């Protein structure tokens, strides 16, 4: 019961409720504010939002993590739900109205949610369209709400191109001058924002709010901007610009298929480049064991992209064992890579425990239909009818093909780890939130899921379906959670329950993690991981993103690292890109070899990309990387390692 509080006390209590993430208190003090006649707008801005700002600052300093922000934002919204209906609005003083969403084909929504929350805390009315939003929905929602601001988020190079289409639709419909158009997400640069004709971008939520405030403050009243007359003038004004955009977008062709054909043609004419002194298997296992090799092994994570050698669709690659195996075989044959990692998508295990999956014909399947309750999780047996069973059959077939004498390449099977499976099944925002508010249920679910994961690894081993298994333990990301929290909700399940299975089969533990600032001490040192596929983000170096120069000295006594050429550039199919890839690969190889030498190692590194090459990427670009290692690798190896 709250009584006798000054206005300042109530505002402070509202801020504290958000900081503590206490939904009930946020509601209670919001009601108290109304009862005491405090202006609801003031209660939001000087109360709730102040609390959110404190949490935002702590997040920037690395003192709290994404789950804490989510809990704080839940309290913020509870309080706002009470206060917002009481805000007096007229046409001229209405709060900034923003539409936000993550673009079609993209399920990443953590960053988008943070931007939405911070904007709401700044007093904006935010209409959230969610993730995987069809492009036209952005346009319709903007018009229906006479929006001041349209904020579009994308986390993948493959989906960010939708921003240009949204821009085109804004011009075409005559809406462009009626709102501020902002784009954002990790791959979006200020240059890209400019190219698509957006008004701006920001690297994080706090900067997004500042920019949105500045840009929307210059707008004339909504009724004026969205009047039919204004829209019709704008439509005419941009007629030429629309035609130009449409012309530029005319079919770029199927890059993956075209480049696959070219690589095959070259192979049929001249075979593969270079002479090999060692087999693929000897080279990969050599690097794993730090033995002397002829050159460093190479494998850009060209998983689904090699389906175009078959050719087959991504859906077929992800669901039909013979297509999957044929893609792997073709990768070794035509590209001459040293291994194949059997990644199709990250939603196999979550589909099997009951979640929904979207399966586009030519893109990576994604987990979309989340379960309602943790109790809805049903662990199946690894048998016919499950996606993982199918995946194991695909792996068995691949083993037969890759072990043929002329190829002799090791196959690395791939499956999701415990926390990744759970976040895919329930939704990441839900799980990250519940880790703090409802940890018991999260642990119960993880407990069940770990049994399933262990059963899967066991089945791969028993069936002889892999030379090694790579587990995606994605959530070890120090922006998203602390080392302690990672340990509690993923690490200890891996350590106590998964690793004994790998030990039983005397198999190396291999991890793939494309996050930006990983808790390597747990994932490598504590787990005793034998091989680690990592991504490096130069711009997040200050936040803890690490490269070969950090990782080899620290972990090469136990672990063979595998990274870090940026896979995003493989989307482009032009000579300048190939040259960049050649330069990056060559430079990385020299520096890695020198660092290995300086640390008394002989070969513990695989030249790779930090994450998989996008499904629509260029196979000529992949070939440029592989050929560079093959052409100069032996010489450099001999020169530096001896
Ligand atoms: C977590 C994660 C996932 C989770 C997402 C869960 C969720 N609900 O969001 C899951 C496991 C589902 C996932 C799936 C996949 N992922 Co993922 N994932 C990541 C990861 C590790 C972190 C992203 C994140 O949440 N960061 C933390 C938040 C706080 O930061 P943020 O999103 O950048 O947002 C901030 C800013 O960008 C900005 N911002 C964001 N939006 C906006 C909007 C506006 C208007 C403005 C102004 C600013 C702004 O403000 C935000 C807050 O400060 C990234 C790697 C990375 N470091 O980015 C890969 C990454 C994005 N994923 C990647 C890939 C490839 C995939 C998959 C295809 C993997 C697969 N084979 O299945 C699938 C995609 C499925 C699909 N169709 O979408 C690649 C994308 C590569 C590419 N082609 O561009 C990345 C970059 C990893 C890599 N190194 O290659 N992933």
Automatic annotation (TrEMBL):
GO terms for molecular function: cobalamin binding; cobalt ion binding; methionine synthase activity; methylaspartate mutase activity; uroporphyrinogen decarboxylase activity. PROSITE patterns: B12_BINDING, B12_BINDING_NTER. It comes from the Archaea. Pfam families: B12-binding (PF02310), B12-binding_2 (PF02607), URO-D (PF01208). Its EC number is 5.4.99.1. InterPro entries: Cbl-bd_cap, Cobalamin-bd, Cobalamin-bd_sf, Corrinoid_p, Met_Synthase/Corrinoid, Meth_synthase_dom, UROD/MetE-like_sf, Uroporphyrinogen_deCOase. Residues 95-226 form the B12-binding domain. GO terms for cellular component: cytosol. Residues 1-95 form the B12-binding N-terminal domain. GO terms for biological process: homocysteine metabolic process; methanogenesis; porphyrin-containing compound biosynthetic process; tetrahydrofolate metabolic process. Keywords: Cobalt, Isomerase, Metal-binding, Methanogenesis, Repeat. Belongs to the methylamine corrinoid protein family. NCBIfam families: pyl_corrinoid. This is Glutamate mutase sigma subunit. It comes from Methanimicrococcus stummii. The lineage of its organism: Archaea, Methanobacteriati, Methanobacteriota, Stenosarchaea group, Methanomicrobia. The gene is glmS_1.
